[in-house]
Amino acid sequence: MVRRWLCWLCVAASLAAPRADAGANRLQLEVDYPPDGAVVGESTCGLFVAGRAVAYERVLRRFDVAVVIDTSGSTLGPSGADINGNGVVGAAITVPLGFGRGELRSSDPGDSILAAEVAAARRLLSLLDRRLTRVTVVTFAGLSPGTPIGQVHGRAARTREPLTSDYARIERALDRILAEEPLGGTNMASGIRQATVELLGMDGARSMANPESRKIVLFFTDGQPTRPYDTPAANVRAVLEAAAEARLATVRIYSFALGPEALDGPVASVDMAKLTGGSFIPVRNAGDVVELVEAVEFAQLAEVEVRSATTGEDAHPFGATADGGWGGLVRVEPGINRIEVLARASDGTALRRLLRVRLEPGVESPVIPKEFSFQRNRLLEACLQDLRRNRRSAEASRARAIRKELVVEIERERAKALRRAAEQRKVLRLEVELPNAP
Prior knowledge:
The protein is α/β, with parallel strands linked by helices. It is built from 9 helices and 16 strands. The chain has helices spanning 2-16, 113-127, 167-179, 188-200, 232-248, 259-264, 267-276, 289-292, 373-428; strands spanning 26-33, 39-40, 47-56, 63-70, 92-98, 101-106, 133-140, 157-164, 214-221, 251-258, 279-283, 301-308, 318-320, 325-330, 335-345, 350-359.
């Protein structure tokens, strides 16, 4: 009872206390590619331009990100999307467990909610800058592997990989999670606390903390808290207590509520984000989380714009990542081109960069650093999709124009043919009694 009272004091204090990272008043904007003054060659989709922008207070912070994955039994259910890309969308099926009980599963395990969570984590990894962002993975349920079913107070959350900038290790951890069978209830509070332990390097952590990093939690769940207590209210309070403790440690939570069950009772997911100054992201169709994870932004930026001052055109396609990375394709013309990059922080602070490049047809562009290859390839894919859509649209428009021209031509030829037929009848002195038109 004493601990419960103290934790509610934590909630009240966290609501009143100012965040250490609130109100950015400095901004860093870097253009990593191309180099200023570079000579570049032609590209159908435009020149690749990429960099990073981060808002901060006293010192430029790195990011430490905890990806928290729900592995409760309900994540065996279908996500509603073809996550594994095999052309089949897993449907809901019930697997009998005996004694009149059944378990909801996806007919294609590769399309389960757990598979969608893991795919979203992979998508996030592909967008982060490993030079400045470390990642750890935590899983939670209501039981630990090997815990007897009747024991509901077992260790519910585990660190699957400590903070690292070696994303290959994170990928392997995600492989292991996906290979395991989800089990148990939903102890959301334990997931928050385990993530906080890792980010702060507290007792029991496997990670080495960075006191200067900005600490972020991406929290995925498909349900409502059902552990460690027996009543919904007690379990929600446990989540709020854990979130309040995280806030006092300047940890910011971005929560994803996946599917109808999570959205029918979202208070825990909503308030963990609200308490910590993060964001709540509702995902009605769980499979959409793979795309929606790209909308997360924790670099405290309001916008980044890239445009050609020479042509007046904005970069298209263009994309920005959660940790401040950005990139786009800019159309350039032969000769000198001026490219402007504008970054604006959430507090209104703005910074502008200008670079000049010279386009010479037939020239090889500077080598794109390996860390930007994935980003550029995604932009090129988007560009090619646009080109295909434009081509199909143009083809459809052309087809309509051709059909219209053919109709006109047919009517013209029909009129000519009717005149020639009349002339022939006169020449041949044919008397043909034509039927009346219907």
